[in-house]
Protein backbone atom coordinates (compact mmCIF):
# COMPACT_ATOMS: atom_id res chain seq x y z
CA UNK A 1 0.00 0.00 0.00
CA UNK A 2 1.71 3.14 -1.14
CA UNK A 3 -1.24 5.54 -1.38
CA UNK A 4 -3.31 6.93 1.48
CA UNK A 5 -6.88 8.18 1.60
CA UNK A 6 -7.62 10.42 4.56
CA UNK A 7 -10.98 11.37 6.04
CA UNK A 8 -12.01 14.03 8.50
CA UNK A 9 -13.39 12.32 11.60
CA UNK A 10 -16.88 13.65 10.82
CA UNK A 11 -16.78 12.35 7.24
CA UNK A 12 -15.58 8.91 8.38
CA UNK A 13 -18.27 8.75 11.09
CA UNK A 14 -20.88 9.75 8.48
CA UNK A 15 -19.59 7.03 6.15
CA UNK A 16 -19.94 4.37 8.85
CA UNK A 17 -23.41 5.62 9.84
CA UNK A 18 -24.66 5.55 6.26
CA UNK A 19 -23.19 2.10 5.60
CA UNK A 20 -25.01 0.72 8.68
CA UNK A 21 -28.30 1.58 6.94
CA UNK A 22 -27.64 -1.28 4.48
CA UNK A 23 -30.94 -3.14 4.18
CA UNK A 24 -30.61 -5.83 1.50
CA UNK A 25 -29.69 -3.08 -0.99
CA UNK A 26 -26.12 -1.81 -1.16
CA UNK A 27 -25.55 1.70 0.18
CA UNK A 28 -23.76 4.01 -2.22
CA UNK A 29 -22.52 7.57 -2.23
CA UNK A 30 -19.89 10.05 -3.31
CA UNK A 31 -16.65 11.03 -1.60
CA UNK A 32 -16.11 14.80 -1.68
CA UNK A 33 -12.95 16.68 -0.75
CA UNK A 34 -9.56 17.77 -2.08
CA UNK A 35 -6.58 15.75 -3.31
CA UNK A 36 -6.86 12.45 -1.38
CA UNK A 37 -8.64 13.94 1.62
CA UNK A 38 -12.37 13.26 2.07
CA UNK A 39 -14.21 15.92 4.04
CA UNK A 40 -17.81 15.12 3.03
CA UNK A 41 -19.69 11.97 2.09
CA UNK A 42 -22.81 12.40 0.01
CA UNK A 43 -25.19 9.41 0.15
CA UNK A 44 -26.96 8.70 -3.14
CA UNK A 45 -29.90 6.47 -4.02
CA UNK A 46 -29.07 3.02 -5.33
CA UNK A 47 -30.90 2.53 -8.63
CA UNK A 48 -29.65 -1.02 -9.22
CA UNK A 49 -32.19 -3.14 -11.13
CA UNK A 50 -30.40 -6.48 -10.81
CA UNK A 51 -30.58 -9.08 -8.06
CA UNK A 52 -31.02 -7.36 -4.70
CA UNK A 53 -27.74 -6.90 -2.84
CA UNK A 54 -25.63 -7.69 -5.91
CA UNK A 55 -24.75 -4.25 -7.13
CA UNK A 56 -25.36 -0.55 -7.25
CA UNK A 57 -25.74 2.24 -9.74
CA UNK A 58 -26.19 5.99 -9.52
CA UNK A 59 -28.10 8.08 -12.05
CA UNK A 60 -26.51 10.85 -14.08
CA UNK A 61 -28.66 13.28 -12.10
CA UNK A 62 -27.19 11.92 -8.82
CA UNK A 63 -23.67 12.33 -10.18
CA UNK A 64 -24.36 15.84 -11.48
CA UNK A 65 -25.96 17.00 -8.22
CA UNK A 66 -22.95 15.59 -6.34
CA UNK A 67 -20.57 17.43 -8.68
CA UNK A 68 -22.57 20.65 -8.32
CA UNK A 69 -22.54 20.31 -4.52
CA UNK A 70 -18.76 19.80 -4.52
CA UNK A 71 -18.09 22.78 -6.82
CA UNK A 72 -20.32 25.05 -4.72
CA UNK A 73 -18.27 24.06 -1.65
CA UNK A 74 -14.95 24.62 -3.44
CA UNK A 75 -14.27 20.86 -3.46
CA UNK A 76 -14.27 18.00 -5.99
CA UNK A 77 -15.78 14.54 -6.28
CA UNK A 78 -12.92 12.20 -5.37
CA UNK A 79 -14.74 8.91 -5.82
CA UNK A 80 -17.48 6.73 -4.46
CA UNK A 81 -18.26 4.32 -1.64
CA UNK A 82 -20.57 1.34 -1.35
CA UNK A 83 -21.28 -1.64 0.88
CA UNK A 84 -20.90 -5.40 0.62
CA UNK A 85 -23.17 -7.47 2.85
CA UNK A 86 -21.32 -10.49 4.31
CA UNK A 87 -18.67 -10.29 1.58
CA UNK A 88 -15.09 -9.04 1.71
CA UNK A 89 -14.65 -5.37 0.76
CA UNK A 90 -12.86 -6.22 -2.48
CA UNK A 91 -13.82 -4.56 -5.78
CA UNK A 92 -15.84 -6.86 -8.02
CA UNK A 93 -15.30 -6.98 -11.77
CA UNK A 94 -18.31 -4.68 -12.19
CA UNK A 95 -16.93 -2.31 -9.54
CA UNK A 96 -13.64 -2.06 -11.43
CA UNK A 97 -15.28 -1.59 -14.84
CA UNK A 98 -17.71 1.11 -13.67
CA UNK A 99 -15.24 3.26 -11.70
CA UNK A 100 -14.41 6.48 -13.56
CA UNK A 101 -10.67 7.00 -14.22
CA UNK A 102 -8.84 8.65 -11.32
CA UNK A 103 -11.63 8.05 -8.80
CA UNK A 104 -11.01 6.34 -5.48
CA UNK A 105 -13.34 3.66 -4.18
CA UNK A 106 -14.15 2.83 -0.57
CA UNK A 107 -15.96 -0.42 0.21
CA UNK A 108 -17.41 -1.30 3.61
CA UNK A 109 -18.22 -4.85 4.67
CA UNK A 110 -21.44 -5.12 6.65
CA UNK A 111 -22.05 -8.10 8.97
CA UNK A 112 -24.59 -9.09 11.62
CA UNK A 113 -28.35 -9.39 11.68
CA UNK A 114 -30.42 -6.41 10.48
CA UNK A 115 -31.13 -5.20 14.01
CA UNK A 116 -27.39 -4.98 14.86
CA UNK A 117 -25.60 -4.09 11.63
CA UNK A 118 -21.88 -3.60 12.06
CA UNK A 119 -19.28 -2.26 9.67
CA UNK A 120 -16.61 -4.91 10.14
CA UNK A 121 -14.05 -3.75 7.60
CA UNK A 122 -13.46 -0.74 5.35
CA UNK A 123 -10.99 -0.73 2.48
CA UNK A 124 -9.97 1.95 -0.02
CA UNK A 125 -8.66 1.58 -3.56
CA UNK A 126 -7.19 3.93 -6.15
CA UNK A 127 -6.40 2.83 -9.70
CA UNK A 128 -7.15 -0.75 -8.65
CA UNK A 129 -4.58 -0.77 -5.85
CA UNK A 130 -5.28 -0.87 -2.10
CA UNK A 131 -4.78 2.36 -0.14
CA UNK A 132 -4.30 2.97 3.55
CA UNK A 133 -7.08 4.88 5.33
CA UNK A 134 -6.35 7.55 7.91
CA UNK A 135 -8.79 9.63 9.95
CA UNK A 136 -7.98 13.15 11.14
CA UNK A 137 -9.89 15.48 13.42
CA UNK A 138 -10.15 18.15 10.71
CA UNK A 139 -8.84 18.90 7.27
CA UNK A 140 -5.53 20.73 7.46
CA UNK A 141 -5.54 23.76 5.13
CA UNK A 142 -2.41 24.18 3.06
Automatic annotation (TrEMBL):
Q: Which UniProt keywords apply?
A: Hydrolase, Metal-binding, Metalloprotease, Protease, Zinc
Report the Pfam families cross-referenced here.
Prok-JAB
Q: Which residues form the JAB domain?
A: 10-116
InterPro entries, A to Z: JAB_dom_prok (IPR028090)
**Could you identify this protein by its name?**
Mov34/MPN/PAD-1 family protein
Record organism: Loktanella gaetbuli
